[in-house]
Each structure stands twice: as structure tokens, then as C-alpha cells.
From TrEMBL, chain A:
Keywords: Signal. This is HmuY protein. CDD domains: HmuY. It comes from Leeuwenhoekiella palythoae. It holds the Pfam family HmuY. The keyword Signal applies. The keyword Signal applies. Residues 1-26 form the signal peptide.
TrEMBL record, chain B:
One of its GO terms (cellular component) is cell outer membrane. Belongs to the TonB-dependent receptor family. This is Outer membrane receptor for ferrienterochelin and colicins. InterPro entries: Beta-barrel_TonB, Beta-barrel_TonB_sf, Plug_dom, Plug_dom_sf, TonB-dep_rcpt-like. It is a multi-pass membrane protein. Its main location: membrane. Residues 220-671 form the TonB-dependent receptor-like beta-barrel domain.
Amino acid sequence: MKIKTMNTLKTIALAAVCIAFTSCSSDDDNTPTPDPIEAELVSNLFAPQTGGQGQPVGGEFAKFDFETGMQTTSDTDWDIAFRGTTIAVNGGTVTGTDDEPARNGDAGATIATGTFASVTTAEGLTFDQDADGSFAIPTGSDNGWYNYNPMVNVVTPIPGKVLVFRTRDGRYAKVEILSYYKDNPSQPDPQTDESRYYTFNYVYNPNEGETSFE
Amino acid sequence: MRLTFCFILFTFCYQTSIGQNEQKTVRDSLKVEKLEEVILTATRTERQLSSLPLPVTLISKKKILQSGTIRLDEILNEQTGIITVTDESGFEGVQIQGIASDYILILIDGVPLVGRSAGNFDLSRLTVGNIKQIEVVKGPSSSLYGSEALGGVINIITEKPKSEELHGNASYRFGSFTQQDINVDIKQRYKKLRYVFFANRFSSEGYDLNPDVDGQTVNPFENYTVNGRIYYDFNDKLSLFTSARFYDQVQDAGFTFNDVAFEGDSKEREWNAHARIDQKWNDRLDTSYELYYTNYTANERLADPISEDVLSDSDFDQKLFRPEIRGNYAFADAGTLTAGFGFQYDELDRTFFDETVSFNSQYAYAQYDFNPVERLNVIAGARFDNHSEYSNQFSPKLAMRYKLTNAISVKGSVGYGFKAPDFRQLYFDFTNSAVGYTVLGYNVALDKLRELREQGQILDVVVSEDDLNNPLEAESSVGYNVGLTFKEGKWNSELNFFRNDIKNLIDTRIIARKTNGQNVFSYVNFDEIYTTGFEINTGYKITNALNLSAGYQLLYAYDKKKQQEVEDGQVFARDPATNQTVAVTQSDNFGLVNRSRHNANFKVFYDIASAKANINLRLLYRSKYAQFDTNGNGLIDTYDTSFIDGYVTTNIAASKTFYDDFTLQVGANNLLDYTDNNIPTLPGIQGYVKLNYQF
């Protein structure tokens, strides 16, 4: 396997939306101001795997923590994790593949349909967790977040699939995966573009239990 | 084959004895004037083209010769509303009224040809040397022809020799890409016996549109077609027709995989044996007894030329046997009743099938062609198919033509068409060794799924077993055609509006997930689509020698469910600038793959009788179309990146006859040298020279 240097995780603050408290008055100085909702773009998160193509799949997952907005190697402080096209959550149990991280949080996932902006809340959604034999985000082409076209050998995130997560500690985030190829090309060429590099937008509400994304 | 022969012999003897008992010879009152263009396909009787209530295209031998076309796909491509296109599978097929090749029946002298690649019938398999005419009936024709005649029927008609002198042709044509076409035919009538012999050899070095990619776009090939026909008229009432046809092609094949250049051959071979006895009982009743057998085989083997490792070795062997009896009865001062019945045995043995599979079907059809009032012609017909593998099909059709004035007629028809699930959809058992997904035919899906589960390959099954127990339905359509014809003086115009509503289209879906993260696919009825638009053709004779014609087809082809989803805002695409999701709107929805909204042609044919020469120019246009869905939302939208721009091809040909017996033809197809890497069937300019010796 080729050795690749890990790309510096670029996090670009796209917008910092503050939910204004309209009822603010000078008497309410003690009311805690909620933390602002974070909207970020993560580029080139590398998620290698071993095996595949009929062989048992293995390799460390690339773990991600919404609280820091960074990739992490922590065994506990992670929410979601990537390996190839597979996405794990830090909630439930191991599914049974090799080299999986232990689940020690209460994360969950579901897939909403719409444009990224149209998913405004996690209210009312049902979250699945990883379980023996199945990931919360189903694996395989057209089952979960991606489509694999064998004609051109390209993995494309299915448009309109917004991944909504409950984090390990009961906060909410939504994710739109933009690309599975390095540097987010508009038309990936499987011959030249390296795969397993995730670029995604996410919106994270850091306030525990709050479901709103705007 | 022995059985076939016995049956022929039996029918033959039996009918001879009956025929000899007939005394009187009566002239056929129904026989149409020789000058008129006559069509067989639309009604299974001889009918004047101009009197038919159906949309029909007739291509004469003269047009084929003058155009310098040598394979069936080339000449059909020049007709309004008929397009040949390469689909996602990489195979080329024909499209009529926006309906794909899978649903177009191909016949020679009324009997079907088999051997399709991913549903596509390769029309370049058929040479157009030595045929009388090509007839194309558009719209559902299952009322006469059964399965596959959902979108239309293409029938190649051969000619019965008339002259007692020996006539024939020998020709040689040489063109770009070392394309060589050699034809020899002889025909003669000797009292009651007539015979035709025809042989063709066609070869090319192929061409390469994209030198950056390993291998050629079209690899070198050579093929042979041999056809012999014998006609014997026992008497005025009884005649025999027999035909044997053989086709053989070898094409180089190559595939580069993991830096190894695999090489091999791709072979195709086809046999057709056709025998028919036509019997005229009296001036009202005639009957035909027909036997037909065909066998199509294809084989492709790819191996590493150094290590001799075999990459792939695939076989395909399809057989069809079909006896049919039909008859026509002309009622006094009324219409003509046509009826027939037959039996069809269809068998396929191929790689990725566990065993040889076969279908049986029995069918009967009837059609009544009459004029309730002088100006109104009505054809009403229906066919019943009983099939061993899917539910029975009843296919009615009604067509009417009303003569408004001597120049103008109105016509309309409505018909049902169907296509039986094919062998692949029922019996396929294929696992992609590189990626690991599996495709299972519907009838074997349950058993195969159990096998996979026992091997521990299945994670979970996502459809219920009940879903897989109900038989797969035939794909079916209802087609409507309404039009006007106008014919006066030098003008000749035809307008036809069409709509085809197709349901139960068979497509693949995921039935289970595998432990390797891949899926198990099988076939299911689910899509509903429609194609609609209109076609207009106009011809104008400036003089007897100079003819202009123009044609245009407007086409809308959509998946109904997808259209609804777009309306509901449930279909998404990615903005190529940011890769972010956007909702697809109705105006973004382009419809189905490989459909061009506009298709037009313009032709000039000029005969210079004094110089025994003719020259013609044909311009063909098709507007942009998309090859496949690139953004995974299941439809073609403006965000897809597989669009092929609209383009024009310009074809010219000129012929001159000299010393009475020789004709020299020079021509060029695609004169303006238009190419696109994504149109594999369109090489650059192809010039050619042909010399024909006729005797």
C-alpha cells in the first residue's frame, strides 16, 4: 500500500449563526448565552481500509469529533468514523468486521432526504445505532449515502441524502458528503483522483438536546 | 433439424395432393396494381402503402442502392424517427418513437430473428444487398406478431425472381478503414422453379476514435452472409418458398485489465431455415403453412497471449422453432379476414445459466379488414399468446382511416403491445468477480439466495419471499397514433402524433445485501414510462427527376414516477461548482437516456436519365441526448455530465451506369467528418468506391 501523508484538516468557518434571544432584556444578565451553531467544511478526511473485493475488510477507522471539529485518535471522544465507504457511529455495538473501535457513547444516525439547507431540525427523527451485523448508515451502493457506478468505477454521494447524527453525548449534527475523492473534484476520474478522501459539510448544534440546525 | 425436414415433407406432400384436385384457376380479385407500393407487414396481406391506417415507413431497393448503404443500421438511421444508438451496455440497437431496441421485433420475410446483446438487436448483422424492400410498422403490433412487437416491427422483404433469363450482380466496394464489401447474386426462373443465390463478404480494419485509450473503438472484423432461396410453383394454386440463410462473423477482441492486454476473438454465427407453402383454394380463400428454425450463437474468449491465462470465455446459443398456419378469406362485398395460429419453441444455453432453459408458447390471431362505408377503412385484430413462463397475453388492435377528400385522409390506431420477460431476466446467475455484486434472474432468485445464505454470504434479505414468488409480468404498452396524410400533385405529406404508455418495465433492484458490502440484484416490474411526440414527413417532386424530402420527429420520453417525484421536490442533483445538493426542477428533467428531443433529415435525390446517372445528398440531424445518469438520481437532468451534443451527418452518393452492364458509385458518409469520442458508431468521413456488374 502506498504511504500518504495525512492532509491537514482544513476547517473553514462558513458561517457562524447565532440564535438571537429576542426576549433579552437588561434584567436577564444571568441567562447563559447558548453556544452558536457551527457550520463547517471538512476537506480530504482520509479513510483507508484494507481488504475488500471479496476479502475481509479491515483497518483502523478514521474517527471524527464534532465538538472539536477535528479528526481524532481518541478511543472515547469521537462521534462518527470512516473506513472506505463505511461510516460507523459511536453508539450501539461493534458490527463484527475486523479492527472496529469499541462503542462507548450514545451516538446514532439517520438519513434525511432533501437539500442540506432544507433539513432544519433533528426533531422527530428516529436514530439507529450500529449493531451486530449492520451499521446505522447502511453499507453498499444505493443503500446508504453513496452510489457505485460499475460502468465508470466511481463512488458518488447520492444527492439529497443528508446524514443526521446524534453525537455520543446527545447533541445533534447534520452532514452532507460532497465527495469521496481527494480535493472534491466535480467529475472524479477513478484513474487519477485518489479515493477514500471525504469532503463534507456539517452543521453542529453544540447545545445538549437542542435539535435545531438554524 | 430432422424433425423440421419431416414436417416440411409431410406438409408438402399433403398439400400437393390437395392442390392437384383443384380444377379452375381464378384470377385474384384482391391483387393490387403493380405500380403501387405494397406493404406486407402491417396486415400480413398485400396492402397498398397509401391505403393503410397505420404509420408505416417503406424503404425501396432503389433508395438503398442509390444511398450507397450496405448494412441495415445505416439505411434505417436515415429514416425519420428511427435512430440507432449505443446504450449503457455498449451494444447498438434501434429506437422507434423513443422506444428502445428491446421492444422492436426484427423479421426477415415475416419470421423473427433472435440473438440479442443486453436486449439490443445488432442491425449491422444484416446486409441490405439483395433485398426487395424494408418495411417498418411503428407502434404496437403484438396483435399480429406477439412478444417484442411493442414499439414496432422491422421486416426485410426478399424478392421472387420473375425473369426466365439468368440475372445477377457482382459488386466490389472499397472504402475508408479498409472497408470492403463484396456481393454476388444470381437469380433465375426456370418454368415452375425459381432460385436465388446470394453471398456477401464484408470486412473492415475498424477505427479508433480515442487513441489515448488502449484498444480500438471498433476492432477489425470480417463477416459472411449466404442466402439461397428456392421457389416452386406446382400450379396456379400451390407454391413453395424455401430459404436458407447463414451468417458468420469473426471480430478481434481485446481488453486491458490490471496492465495485462488480453486478446481473443468474438464470434457470431446464425442459421435461418424458412419454408412456406402458399395455397389458393379459390378466389376468396388462401392459406399458408410455414416452418421456421433459427439458431444464433456467439462466443467470446479473452486470454493473456503470454501466460495463456483465460480472462473470460462466454457462450451464447439460442434456438427458435416455429410452425405457423394462417389464411385469408375475402367475403363477398365485405372485408378480408386473416387468421393464424402457431407454436413457438425458444431455447437458450449460455454462460451464467445453470442449464439450458426453454420457453413454449402457443398463439392464435385474427384480423378483420373492411370498409363499412366507402371512405372508411377499419382494421380490427387481436392475438392470444399462451406462454409457459408468464401470464397469457391478449393483444387487441384497432385502426381506422377515413378519406376526407381525394387528397387528404385521417388515420388513427390504438393497440396493445408486450414483451415477454427474456431468458436473462429469468435465469441469470452472475457474480462480478472484481467487485463482488451478484445479479440473479427472477425465476432462480429464491433458490440462489438460499444457496448464498448457506454459504454465509448474505447479511440480510431486503424483500419478502412473497415478492419473489409472484411471477414476473410481461412488459406492456398501449400505443396511440393519430395522423393526417396529404397527397396531391407534386406534394406528399404525412403527419402522425404518437403516444406510448408502457408499464411493468423490468429493471433491476436490490433484493439482498451481502456480507462483503455489495448487493444482490434481481429483476422486478416497476417502471412506468411514456413516449410521446409527433412525426412529419414531406416530399416534393420538383420534376420527375428531382425529389426533395424532409422529415422531423419531436419526442418526449419520461419515467412517470420520476416525473412525479420531481414535481414533489424529491429528486436531487449536485451543483458541479460546489458538489452541494440542489433540488431538480421540472425544467431540469431531461427524461430518459439516449432520447433526443429533435430528429430531422433532409434529402435530395436527382436522377439524370440522359447520362444514366444519379446523385443524392442526405443530411441527418439529432439533437443532444444523455448516455447515462451520472449523478445517481435515476433520471437524466441538466446536471448530468454524459450529454452528447446535437450533430449533423452529411452523406452523399453518386452513381453512373456505363456500357449498360456496369455501375460505378462513389460516395462519402459523414462528409463533414464529425466525430465524438462518445459516439462509438460514428467514425470520421468514410469515402467509398463501388463497381457493380449487372447481368
